[in-house]
Each structure stands twice: as structure tokens, then as C-alpha cells.
Amino acid sequence: MDQRFPWKIHNIRQHTLILDGKLPPTMVLKNATYLNSSLRMWKQANIWIYKDRIVYVGELLPKNSSGTEILDMTGKWIVPGYIEPHVHPFQLYNPQSFAEYASQSGTTTFIQDNLMMLLLNEKKKALPFIQQFKKSPLSFYWWARLDSQTELLNEEELITNGEVRQWLADPSVLLAGELTSWPKVIDDDDLILSWMQEARVNYKRIEGHLPGASEKTIAKMVLLGVTGDHEAMTGDEAWMRLEQGLSVTLRHSSIRPDLPKLIQELKDKGLRSFDSLMMTTDGSTPSFYRDGVMDRLISIAIEEGIDPIDAYHMASYSIAKYYRMEFMQGMIATGRLATLNVLESIDNPTPLSVMSKGHWMKKDGKRNVSIEQPDWSQIPELGLDWELGDEDLQFSMPCGIEMVNNVITKPYSIEFDTSVEEINRESDESFLMLIDRYGKWKICTIIKGFSRDLGALGSSFSNSGDIILIGKSKKDMSTAFSRIKALNGGIVLVDQGEVLHEIPLTIGGMMSKEPMEAVMASEEKLKAILEKKGYTHNDPVYTLLFLSSTHLPYIRLTQKGLYDVKKKTVLFPTIMR
């Protein structure tokens, strides 16, 4: 049976012996000025640590310090390790590479989306796969998805009653959601509603996804079981959620950098308590993290006039308390995991040293430990064993997709001859294909507003794990597909037969094995080339991801076909190859 608690009985007995002086602690942080979250005060104390656990915080020093490492923290400030409560760990990076990078700026706990684990693993192997992360010096927790946020041909096989209940019963799963299919629940989807009730029975939280929702809709979702939401785009929307009893996660991400605005508008409305607020970067694309992760959000909050204690709590204690794990982490107190950040000043949340589960991830400004890679071979390779032929590149659909911004689309009528081999480069229209990763089906249309001068972009990175091809030239699109096949997954830019840039994504065709810094550089080059080629938006990775995402308006390219989100209908179905 899997161990459900970090310490066995004999370990806990050892911890109490340290207080009696019969065993020495591993380490003592002496003269530490630390954030006491229970008292909501800065206090001075000595912090005793034994391996991965804080065994005492107070005025005393250990009677037995034989072999103990004693570090004087005079002049330093110590806060709990930061928690990212809403991670999509597959935006070209992978869960391990993102976490290792984030740990260097103090974020050491991750509550993350399981969607790609479900899509890329064989169904029964997804939950066992994530157990590997329990061995990490960082802390990984997971969601249990109740829907796929797109129209899949086999969703009822992917997200089954048995699988959902198994995920909800796992101790490392803290929530159900995010619930992008809430309109179905409001209408009549009793299966998802039953899973929501199962989540509540298992003391899990339920994360909504309610952009632009009215007060009445939010009230309905609270009645149905939703406990929190991260989709407020204004102070009024955040306030409305708080009024209805939801916990609110304020977002600052690559497509919604809203935190300064949200804080100021909440302050203007007279908000007195920040206890029900958390913060997230909401699965931003790689280069967004150049300036940090949760430390960046804490800095913004402090700059916007939030009391530093509230700012630190919104990235640690408030999150831990909401997810009912403050007995383990999110605060510096006796019995918690030894996960903390050492700061040079209260106003600078980027730590000098970072400890997670008793391991120095960073010490005195220097990276101190690398994390062992999970066994990625457990995720099946993309393995494209089929060819893209000229007959596949037929575009005759009368309706296309027009980009409004990075992720919002609308329909438009196609009014030019799509039988040409290359579209005029003075227009902003391009061919667009979504092809089954197993080669069984395809759908072909036109996209307006993506670029003006790009031969082709090919991508195995998509919301459903299928292949996206966009471009002016059918020949370049074929070349891009061939390169994806040779790379065993990736994003490829081609123009006039020349490969301009490649990002290999060898983990299931969705994620890179490279370190975060390398992925950042690759994404920045991708953006720079696309900008030169007429891409006028700022987040192409999210454009690719959300082309199939049916939780956003209005027209999406899905496994079932060209889909009208508002009418919930397939306008044109996919074609079998």
C-alpha cells in the first residue's frame, strides 16, 4: 500500500526525541526573523529542522546539537515556500523542467493540470505515472479533470466514471477541475455533477472556469459545488465572486497580465480582507517567466500597496489553507515540511536561498541541486507512421476562422479560390488543417489574421494532441509535416522550402525535455520569426493550444469538426482519410 503520510511512526517518534535532547536536529536556523502565519506577525525565533521536517520554532536552542549545522540568520527574513496553485505544466516545458526553474525563485509547490497526462498516457497508466513526482524534493499536487475543454471523438473513453473517481481518491489530487464545461452542468449533465459531489465528499476543492459569468450564473455554480475561480478580469468580477462565497485566484499570465488592475480595483471598492485571495500565473508560456514565477506576483502586489504579509500569504498560506494542507506546508511552524525562502529584505520576494523538504534548492544565490528526470519513456512517443499526401491538401470549405486576438476567434466567409498551391502573400489568410495524430481524419479550412508571409507552421502541440498545419504554401506545409515526423513531435517554421526554426517536443509530441531556459530561448525565437512574418498577436503558443478549445468563443477546430461554441453544434464535420 502506498504511504499516505510523509513520515512513518518511528520517524515521528524520532522527531519528538529531538525536543527532549536525545537526538540532534539536522539543522538550526538561528536568530531567524520569520513570518508567523498563525499570528500574522514577523517574529524572531530559532527554527529546528530534522531532515525534511520543521521540528520546532521558538526561542529555545537544542540541548543536543552534535553534528547539527547551525546557520545564523541575523538580518535575513524567512517566509514559507511559494505555491503555484494553478499550473498547466505543458506549455512546451514539462512539469519537471518548469518546477526546477521555478524553484530558483522560491516557488517549490505546484498544483497542476492532469489533462496532458490523460491525453498522452494510456488511460490506466496516467495516475501511476504521476506517482514518480512524489520522490522529488519539490511538492507536486494535481487536478482531476472532469472534461477535456474541447470536442473529442472519444471523451467518454478518456474521462470515465471509474478514472475520475480513482483520481479524486488519490491524496495528491487536491481539486476537481478546472470546470470548463460548466454550461453543460447547468443544463443537464448529471454525470459531471455527480463527480463534483464526489469531489466534495473526498474533501477536494472544485475550480470553476467562469469568464464573464453573471452573478446569477456564479450563484448557480456555487450551489452546484464550485468553490473557487480564477477567471475574474476586473475588480467588479472578483468582488462578485467573493460576495457569492467563492475563493478567488487573481491571475497574472502571458495572455491576461491583470494583477495590478485587479488589486487596484479591489482596493478602490474598499476590500478589507485578502484572506480569500490567491494568485496564479495560470500556465503562462515560457518566456513570460524570465522575471520569475510567484515571486514576481508578490512583488507586483507589494508595489500596488498590499501589506507584505498579505502578499506573501496570497502565494503561500492562503493557498495551503484553502486546499486544506496547511498542516503540512504554506507556513513556517512546528510539524510542517521544511520548505522556506530566505530573503534579504521583506520588499524583495526573490530569495537568496530556497529550501524544499529540507533540501537547499538554492543557497546564497547559487543553484544547489538538480532534480532527477521522471521516466518519460512511460509516455508513448508521437510516432507518426503515416504520410501526408497531396490529396489531403484540399480546401473547399466555405467558412473559415478569423482571429480576433491571441485566442478569440470568429467565423468568416471564404471568398477566394482555395484550390491554389499558394495564397497571395499580400493577404492575411492562410491554409489551416487539423489532422488526427493517428492519420484517421482531417479537417481543412482557412484562417484569417494569423500571418501574411509565412510558408508554413506545423505543430504537434495542440489542445487535443493532434497535428496543426498553417501556411500560405501547401508545399511548405508538407515539408513542415515531414519535419515534425522526423523530430518525433515539435513546432516547425518553414518558408520557401527552408526550415526557419524548430522546437523538438519529444514527450508525446507536446513537451520538451530541454531545460526551461532553452525552451524560453526557442519560444522567443519562434515569436520573433512569426512577428516578421506578419503574426500581429503576442502569444503564438496559446494560439496553437486554443484553436481547439471550446471554452472560448466562437469558432473552434476540433476532432469532431469546425465547431460553433455558442450554438454547440458542428458546422462542418471532419473527413475520414
From TrEMBL:
Its EC number is 3.5.4.2. The keyword Disulfide bond does not apply. GO terms for molecular function: adenine deaminase activity. PANTHER family: ADENINE DEAMINASE YERA-RELATED, N-ACETYLGLUCOSAMINE-6-PHOSPHATE DEACETYLASE. It comes from Jeotgalibacillus proteolyticus. Belongs to the metallo-dependent hydrolases superfamily. Adenine deaminase family. Keywords: Hydrolase. Residues 77-360 form the Amidohydrolase-related domain. It comes from the Bacteria. Pfam families: Adenine_deam_C, Amidohydro_1. Residues 407-568 form the Adenine deaminase C-terminal domain. It catalyses: adenine + H2O + H(+) = hypoxanthine + NH4(+). This is adenine deaminase. It is an enzyme of class 3 (hydrolase).
